[in-house]
From TrEMBL:
Keyword Coiled coil belongs to the record: no
Keywords, alphabetical: Cell wall, Glycoprotein, Secreted, Signal
Family annotation (InterPro entries): CWI-Assembly_Regulator (IPR051648), Rcpt_L-dom_sf (IPR036941)
Ranges for region Disordered: 335-380
Composition-biased stretches (Gly residues): 369-378
GO CC annotations, alphabetized: cell surface; fungal-type cell wall; plasma membrane
Signal peptide: 1-18
Protein name: Uncharacterized protein
Ranges in coiled-coil conformation: none
Pfam families for this protein: Ecm33
Length: 407
């Protein structure tokens, strides 16, 4: 009986399933091309397979009724849809992808708390989406949108987060506690102003590449398991007051033009290298009072007139300090740690160089600082790829959707 109320594209997977309200798409994908299609699904408790909103569906689609989609939910390449509502959906078992939807300005899914991944890209009218909020997702990619807030996402843990090119996003505050692979932030907020980032509960993170932020607060951060890289940010001050170690990767600060104060009061151990370069306003590098072990190289380059690493005992790679100003007195201290063959105590295992009055000190920002082992440098190439991937899986699904329409 229920079968009759379903879209032609559905078949019930058996009477037991039908009685429990499970609807299964023929071919694995249900395509919704109109509100009438959506209304026919209202009696399904669970939609098995993927749900695709057709490219000509709209302006308003409401798929209230179903509580779960076992596969993906996709709204792609649709220039008509303005509003999408799903009052009962709590879970999307696959990816929830919205891509290239230029008119969508209202997304109302007040019970959605879980999706395998979130991938919203080129969503150019949606400012304030409503989700459960979402508390469970393995991956969140938000790119080229006009979102003003990420309040719809309240995760305590996730694997990957890539938030880039969202010009109206000026604040990011989340109770995230840990992150298993990488956080990448770039080009959010107004150009030259950036985004304020507050992660008060973050205790450990595998890797992070942070660019163009105006503030970055991580008061609880204790461990970075891989690398942390800060490029072209707008902050004047950066502190990781509770960070004790980067267990396997590099710590880098490159080209943060306004940075004057960099402090890591508890940091003792960097598994990879330390690179502080081309932060032209930074006059003193004195924020590493406890730093003892560096598994890679140390490279300090800039316009500073004083640098010190008073607790340093072991650098496995080379040590290179160079400034546009006279740092002769700092060099004398560093030279005490030089390899024995260079007249020092051997704390630094690679060779040590320290130069003053180097007019080119800000020009070299090379990242060849990882010394052996498992240095997990953040992967720049990956960031770029994430922003533009229209992968073959997606094309495959578009084709499937076309097939369902033909039915
Ligand atoms: C974006 O969607 C529009 C339809 O709204 C389509 O014409 C266009 O080709 C799509 N762009 C891409 C890159 O797929
Ligand atoms: C990162 O380090 C923390 C603290 O040592 C640990 O609990 C966590 O499991 C590590 N995470 C990864 C991905 O290795
Ligand atoms: C944003 O950061 C990137 C480096 O990741 C840099 O190339 C770019 O110039 C920065 N943009 C601004 C406006 O600072
Ligand atoms: C900093 O670390 C100490 C010791 O692990 C801990 O007791 C304290 O709560 C941490 N502070 C913050 C703000 O997380
Ligand atoms: C992140 O950190 C882990 C170590 O916790 C490392 O194995 C991995 O290669 C790093 N890089 C990325 C892109 O996840
Ligand atoms: C630098 O920042 C640290 C931590 O926020 C702060 O305690 C210290 O007073 C600052 N130093 C200067 C010179 O502003
Ligand atoms: C750096 O330049 C200044 C000014 O020309 C000079 O007084 C100083 O001796 C130079 N320092 C070194 C180490 O060459
Ligand atoms: C150094 O940083 C400035 C911005 O402060 C930037 O214009 C310049 O290109 C950077 N130089 C290098 C070699 O990255």
């Amino acid at each position: 009986m229920l079968v009759k109320t379903l879209l032609p594209a559905f078949v019930a997977i058996g009477s037991a399933a039908a009685q429990s309200g499970t609807c299964t798409a023929n071919g694995g994908t249900t395509t919704i091309n109109s509100q009438a299609d959506a209304t026919q699904m209202a009696s399904c408790k669970t939609l098995k397979g993927d749900v695709v909103i057709g490219t000509n569906a709209g302006p308003a689609i409401d798929i209230s009724g179903p509580g779960e989609i076992t596969g993906a939910l996709r709204i792609l390449n649709n220039g008509l849809i303005e509003s999408f509502t799903s009052n009962d959906l709590t879970k999307v078992g696959g990816e929830f992808r919205i891509q290239n939807t230029t008119k969508l300005s209202s997304l109302n899914m007040p019970k959605l708390t879980s999706a395998k991944t979130i991938q919203w890209q080129s969503v150019t009218s949606l400012e304030n989406p409503t989700l459960g909020p979402l508390t469970s997702a393995d991956e969140i990619i938000i790119s080229d949108t006009v979102l003003r807030t990420l309040d719809a996402f309240q995760l305590k843990t996730t694997r990957k987060m890539d938030i880039n090119n969202n010009p109206r996003l000026t604040k990011f505050n989340m109770g995230l506690q840990n992150l298993g692979e990488i956080m990448a932030l770039q080009a959010n907020g107004l150009r030259d102003q950036g985004i304020d980032v507050d992660l008060p509960n973050l205790v450990w993170i595998a890797n992070m590449t942070i660019a163009n932020v105006s503030t970055f607060e991580v008061p609880s951060l204790r461990v970075v398991n891989g690398s942390a890289r800060f490029d072209s940010n707008f902050f004047e001050s950066f502190s990781a007051p509770n960070l004790t170690a980067l267990t396997s990767g590099d710590l880098s600060f490159i080209g943060n033009a306004q940075l004057t104060n960099l402090t890591f009061p508890k940091l003792t151990n960097i598994g990879g290298g330390l690179l502080v370069a081309n932060n032209t306003a930074l006059e003193k590098i004195d924020g590493f009072p406890e730093l003892t072990h560096v598994g890679g190289a140390v490279k300090l380059r800039g316009s500073f007139d004083e640098a010190e690493l008073p607790s340093l005992e072991n650098v496995k790679g080379t040590f290179d300090a160079s400034s546009t100003t006279d740092i002769d007195s700092s060099c004398k201290e560093f030279e005490k740690h030089a390899p024995q063959g260079e007249g020092g105590n051997g704390d630094v295992q690679g060779s040590l160089t320290c130069t003053s009055n180097n007019t080119r000190a800000n020009e070299e920002t090379g990242t060849d600082i990882v010394g052996g082992g498992s240095g997990g440098s953040g992967d720049d190439g990956e960031n770029g790829a994430v922003g533009m991937s229209l992968n073959s899986a997606l094309f495959g699904l578009v084709a499937l959707a076309g097939f369902a329409v033909a039915l």
